[in-house]
Specification:
Belongs to the phosphohexose mutase family. Keywords: Isomerase, Magnesium, Metal-binding, Phosphoprotein. This protein has three domains: about 140 residues, Alpha-D-Glucose-1,6-Bisphosphate, subunit A, domain 3 (Alpha-D-Glucose-1,6-Bisphosphate, Chain A, domain 3), CATH 3.40.120.10; about 100 residues, 3-Layer(aba) Sandwich (Alpha-D-Glucose-1,6-Bisphosphate, Chain A, domain 3), CATH 3.40.120; about 80 residues, Alpha-D-Glucose-1,6-Bisphosphate, subunit A, domain 3 (Alpha-D-Glucose-1,6-Bisphosphate, Chain A, domain 3), CATH 3.40.120. About 35% of the residues lie in helices and about 20% in strands. The protein contains ten helices and 16 strands. Strands 1, 2, 3, 4, 5, 6 and 7 form a seven-stranded mixed β-sheet that branches. Strands 9-8-10-11-12 form a five-stranded mixed β-sheet. A two-stranded parallel sheet has the order 13-14. The model has no long low-confidence stretch (mean pLDDT about 95).
């Protein structure tokens, strides 16, 4: 049974539950466990003021085990998923998702996916049974900053949608003062989308502070008719919509809408959508009425993705706004 990893990595109050010591132990265990399988470890983070602290500790631990480390800077979790898949390597995102800045966390990814439960157990066992093991001096890993990963992700997203007919007005974005703030202006400008961008001025403390996916009223109460709000969380791996009057469009609704569009495009393989046991019964009835199947799995976007890979599904997600279009990215 796992003791450190939850459904979305390791998470806790900074310097109380998630300490530099734990981050260094984790980095060292990751380096030992994956050394030889992957040639480098890419670390990304959101905008929390504790990100530098945890990043440095993890990097020291991994390099001391012989793993080369790259700092990708502040980028969304989907950006790191794209990069680790493209580069066929290992990574971690330092983020506590929708939680305020007093929390931080660590999600470990390999080739675009969160690592398996089995790998998490093995890494925990290394931390508990043998917290540190250092390589000889000649095998110490190198640590370097890599700035081009963000631009690669922006280019990828723009390339996906540059031929699509996209709305040029009426969009209001809440960036939660998080990681989306480093990419959204450039993506929207490249696609010709003129949006009112809010919550994109992080200061290290204001991430998810009365804004973001948990606070739809922050935008919803100020929207005019004809406008739509787009809500992100701290690391931008979930997205919800909100309409005037703070009417929330959750992940189930977004998957329902996208399922019909993907059928019309010939993209919805097997006429199947993967969601969790938490998804609304109304969502299932909606799909059934359109001869589509809802395939449920346990809570956690990693389990949704595992189920999609097993069944060949291309659309899946959670009510909270984690949505996966597997023919586009993981």
């Amino acid at each position: 049974m796992k003791k450190l990893f939850g459904t979305d990595g390791i998470r806790g109050v900074i310097n109380e539950e998630l300490t530099p010591e734990l981050a260094m132990k984790l980095g060292n265990a990751i380096g030992r466990y994956y050394l030889g399988k992957y040639n480098r470890f890419i670390i990304a983070k959101d905008t929390r003021n504790s990100g530098d602290l945890i990043e440095s500790a993890m990097a020291a631990g991994a390099a001391s085990a012989g793993m080369n480390v790259e700092f990708a800077g502040v980028i969304p979790t989907p950006a790191l998923a794209y990069i680790t898949k493209k580069e066929n390597t290992l990574g971690a995102v330092i983020s506590a998702s929708h939680n305020p800045a007093v929390y931080n966390g660590i999600k470990v990814l390999a080739k675009g996916m969160k690592i398996s439960d089995e790998d998490e157990v093995e890494i925990e066992n290394l931390i508990i049974d043998n917290p540190y093991h250092y390589t000889v001096f000649s095998g110490v890993g190198k640590i370097r900053q890599v700035d081009h990963y963000r631009d690669e992700y922006i280019d990828y997203v723009v390339g996906l949608y540059k031929r699509e007919k996209l709305p040029s007005k009426g969009i209001v974005v809440d960036g939660a003062n998080g990681a989306i703030s480093t990419v959204i202006s450039m993506v929207y400008e490249s696609l010709g989308i003129k949006a009112d961008l809010r919550g994109i001025k992080p200061n290290g403390i204001n991430i998810n502070d009365g804004c973001g996916s948990l606070f739809p009223e922050y935008l919803g109460n100020s929207l005019d008719q004809g406008q739509i709000g787009v809500l992100f969380d701290g690391d931008a791996d979930r997205c919800l919509f909100v309409l005037p009057g703070s009417r929330l469009i959750d992940g189930d609704m977004l998957m329902a809408l996208n399922s019909i569009k993907m059928v019309s495009q010939g993209r919805l393989k097997g006429n199947r959508v993967v969601a969790t046991v938490m998804s609304n019964l109304g969502f299932e009835k909606y799909l059934t009425s359109r001869n589509l199947v809802l395939d449920r799995t346990k809570v956690g976007d990693k389990y949704v993705l595992e189920r999609m890979l097993k069944t060949g599904g291309v659309l899946g997600g959670e009510q909270s706004g984690h949505i996966i279009f597997l023919d586009r990215s993981s």
